[in-house]
Amino acid sequence: MVSKYFSLAWLLVLNLLLLTSCLNSNNEDLEYSPDAQIYAFSLSSATDTSDVLPATKFTIDQVNGKIFNQEPLPYLFQVDSVVLNITGSSTYNSYTLVQLKLRPDSTYNWIQADSVAISRLEKIITTAPDGITKKTYDFQLNIYQEDPYLLQWKQKSPGYLPAPVVSQKTIAFKGQFITYFNSGTATKAMSTAIGDGTAWTALSLTGLPSTLRLSSLVPTDDAVYGLDTTTGIVYQSANGINWSQVVTTNTIKAIYGVLPSATQGKILAAAEMNGELTFVQTDNFSVLKPMNKLPANLPVRDFSATRADITSSYSKYLILSGGATTDSSLNNNIWILLENNGTISSIPSRISNTVPLQGSSLFFYDDKTYLMTTSSDKNVLMSSQNYGLDWITAADNQVFPSGFTRRTNTSIVTDAGNNVWIFGGISATQTQLTDVWKGRLSKYATN
Question: Could you report the per-residue pLDDT of 118-132, keeping only the tens digit for each?
Answer without folding.
Answer: 999 999 999 999 999
